[in-house]
Amino acid sequence: MAVSAKTNKRATVKDLNSIDCQVLSSLYAHRCLDNNLLDRHYFRENGSRAYRMRKLSEFGLVKKENYCAKHYYFLTTKGVNLARSILGVSGDREPTASQLRINERVVSHQLLLNKFVLAFQEKAAKAGFSDYEYFDELRQSQYSWIRPDGIISLPDCDIFLEIDTGAERVRQLNEKWLAYEQFLSTEEFHNAKKPIQVLVVSYGGSGSKRRVSTIMKTLSSQLIPVLRSGLNIYVGSHEEMLKKLTTRFVFPGRFLKYKAGVETRLKRKGYSVTPGNSISAYLGGENYDYYIKKVDLKESGHSDEPDFVVDVFGEGPFSDIRKAFQFLKRETAYHEKTGKHLKYIMVVGDIDDMYYFLNIAEA
Fold this sequence. Notes:
- It is built from 14 helices and twelve strands.
- The protein has 363 residues and is α/β, with parallel strands linked by helices.
- The chain is elongated and about 80 Å long.
């Protein structure tokens, strides 16, 4: 059989253009890419995806597979070596081509994870933000008791990504939350240096709202009752969780401004405002955003007015509804230790959303 001389050519970085190098680097980081992700993030402007991917295949750098009528690409051993050269990485801890290869049963799941992460990375790059690290499940070493689908490590928190394809049964969802429940009882969680924010990204298709409700219900029955400070859970669609990630954690300026406005209004109403963790010892270790009380009770004419704890909920997380259900126990402990009563205020962005959360949790 005749073989093209180009097929046997030993490719070097000099044979590749800048987009080729980006594609190889991305395949090394994300393990597999399909035509949609390639078009979206690398060939959107020049439309040369078919030609360039064929060239990379001829160079022996990538291999194409078919799964459920979809094409996806992964790196060969030669491609891995060249990607390492492009990225300037080496060492025994770097994954091999066989380790990067995805079992076809979970290709769809991995592609959805990559869809979310690449969308975030694109937004971050456009905004000039680079102060983060991304680890998919293969490269995680920070936690040994829990392995989320991906981790985006930010300066102030770790973002755990959990991808829901819409195909997992309730039993499988419960098993996932059971793993988190067990994680909460470990020294690893108690000694974590940063709070953990879990984003459950649902790709439930046309019934995505119903799917999100199903996920929330399993969380409410399995995990919410045992949650504690240090781990929050958000649930929503790709668009909702991408917005949450960027506006709440990466660029939180708008939310922090909103929160500061709440504090200012409370002070104008005659309340002293201190951080909620100042009384956490009286509340079983629970943390709230603020602890407030009237500055001068005699002038107000309400000497029996209770103290308050306040959470600026905004638009999440869903997991914070646990505080509403657990508050009676917290208030009892506070009253026994101080002789005073305590009330709980949640400042929400949309009251209908909060009722929706509470109804799901009570179902």
